[in-house]
Design a protein that fits this description.
Elongation Factor Tu (Ef-tu), domain 3; Alpha-Beta Plaits; elongated; 32% strand; 717 residues; 5 domains; alpha+beta; Rossmann fold
Length: 717
Amino acid sequence: MKSYPTQSIRNVVLLGSPKSGKTTLAETMLFEGKVIDRRGSVEAKTTVSDNTEIEQIYQRSIYPTLLYAEFMDHKLNIIDTPGSDDFIGGVISAFKVADTGVMIVNAQQGVEVGTEILARYAEKYRMPLIIGVNQLEHEKANWENSIESLKLAFGKKIVLVQFPVEQGAGFNSFIDVLKMKKYFFKDDNGTREEMEIPAEFMSRAEELHQTLAEMAAENDESLMETFFEKGNLTEEEIRKGLKTGLSKGEMMPVFCLSGKRDIGVKRLMEFIIDVAPTPENSIQKLKDGTLIPCDASGQTSLFIYKTALEQHLGEVAFFRVMSGKLTEGMDLTNPENGAKERISIIYAVAGKKKERVPEMMAGDIGCTVKLKSAKTNQTLNGGGKEWIFEEIEFPPSKFRTAIRAKSEKDDEKLGEILNKTHAEDPTIVVEYSKELKQTILSGQGEHHINILKWHLTNTYKIEVDLFPPKIPYRETITKVAAGDYRHKKQSGGAGQFGEVHLIIEPIVEGVPAGNKFKVEGRDLVLNIKGKEEYPLEWGGVLEYYNCIVGGAIDARFMPAILKGIMEKMEEGPLTGSYARDIRVFVYDGKMHPVDSNEISFKLAGRNAFKEAFKKAGPKIMEPIYNVEVMVPSDCMGDVMSDLQNRRAMIEGMSSEKGFEVLRARVPLAELYKYSTTLSSLTSGRATFTMEFADYQQVPSEVQEKLLKEYEANEKDE
């Protein structure tokens, strides 16, 4: 393969809901680009894109696959992405290195929830979108409904470049209103004939051509003047306006496609080359906000957007050349760790097929192997540059589970593999929770985690158990209470003695600490001598007040009492969960001139606090999450009912472009496997996001249940 200059490179990402036909379209683009001479199929498990064993088992894309095609003396880098929301990380990483998105819409379904979600991401990352209405050969294809749903979702941005002459089994031609030609396809191999538009379609074609010209003119003042003067624009002038409108995100041109029959694919590729933004137009941002142009004459720098483990090759790093020219044998530096990396080999990539190339120019996408330490989201620079490009921002997890190896001997190996997996796929998050005493595995959905489990079993030969994770409850109090404890121990020599009297009260926002208390029929007025405030790692705060008078407890023992209290807050008296938002007033006690020491007062403080806590109206608090569900209207009732069964508090509903958006506050304890249930209720047509909100007290019946469960577990242990 020859080296392509920056202006002859186009980087596109294929987007769309599951079953929209992205992989089939990608296969056909490779066929038209002469990368393959025979097209495979998803059903036959022979596509270039879905080339891993697990993708072939499920017959769906799981990983973003880099492909290339050489077409019209240009190189098209194509990233075929998964349609499932479970694998959104692969889509977002592709956004980092692509310049144009091609949104594939299934002609049977029109705009789906997945389409809407992907379009949101595209807008967030300022990704221009071309729309391809695919599978027009299907008997249930409906062009009119698809266009209507597109206009409902994206409004005036939708502009038709083509429309089909027929659809369904008879789909073999379309009218191109930019070229003002009819394209007829003689076979399923893209053989086309350019023809004049039949008279019965001319009126519609002229109307759409005029609309196309008007919208093109709106994006360029000089074109607008020409349009007003002549009443129309030439094909070249329309292309110029489309190019501007597309790059600004003001236009979404729509094309007719059948990836399966190779209808319209070549025309789409021509349009990408003629109109889609080039890497030259892209400006990348560094972490510090500096903007770096994509300039082949600049200093060499590349960004690693994905890493993967491939058989026979080991770890493969996929990158985009952000600036300069990358050549084999070049030494680059990782500015984050100072490590030197030699680029021993450069590959152009079409799935498993990798073609060695001596160099790549700014804007090109490829891969390399045998890097020592470079990972996803890292930059490599030449020429002493310290550039660090802005990292890919991945969405928070939506599914969590506990994981453990079936055999203890595999524990260490499992930990290493999970850490490596996170480096390859940052949307897989692994955390050992000291609080829960569990390894918590988080991802985008149950399917996402099940894919990882499959690899653990089949690739790494480790059997694991997945099970519901514990909930990180919190404990607090609701009223004032007093506690005291005397620790006394005699064992032959020096003994232990310490006595502590304390009062505790809940911290309520906006309510300051007082010094007058009525506890157990006694009125107490405390002399506050000192206050210490400790923000807690697990949230909330502890306020610690020294109210000792008359030297009842020596000042040197106050830190030990605090330590004992803190230990008990780390293992709350009710369920062993962290305690929070409590004021502690130590006001009295006793010492022994010989037997008192730090351990004595630590134990006395711990037990006095425990006693007071149980009398202070103790409450268990649970984590609450803000949940937003986007759901088709016909599934709204089922989704609402399910949420209410999960103790959700519905906070609002709205309609958005043909879908319903439901906002609720839901306890984390009720969200286990919610993604799976939601998919089942809506046949995979809904999606949701979740974000931690705060802690709230659990209902009394839930608290009672939790206490019984804790007591039962304590007995078992």
